[in-house]
Specification:
Layout (H helix, E strand, L loop, with lengths): L14 H23 L4 H26 L3 H13 L10
Helix pairs in contact: 1-2
């Protein structure tokens, strides 16, 4: 990952990682809906395979990095995101 986590006390920007995690979560949510509504369709099977092969491991790494942030920095970043009226960046499905 191009922008890693810094040491405690440093400003940490996870913009690219945040966007990637949001995109993965969106696909996981779509997959969850498909598993409930059409569990035996070929499309659902393809979505599941794609998620496992493409997203699952990376999502675990990204979540661990976010959770490893010092609690104060994590609260600060959440506050930044919730205060912002717009969030710039592209999230692809």
């Amino acid at each position: 990952m191009s922008e890693g986590l810094g040491h405690e006390g440093e400003a940490v920007e996870l913009k690219a990682e945040e966007l990637r995690l949001v995109a993965i979560r969106r696909r996981a949510t779509q997959l969850a809906v498909a598993l409930v509504t059409e569990p035996f369709s070929a499309d659902t099977h393809e979505q599941l395979q794609s998620y496992v092969e493409r997203d699952a491991d990376e999502a675990q790494v990204l979540v661990r990095e976010v959770l490893a942030l010092p609690p104060a920095r994590l609260r600060e970043r959440i506050a930044e995101l919730t205060r912002s009226k717009t969030v710039q960046g592209e999230v692809t499905a």
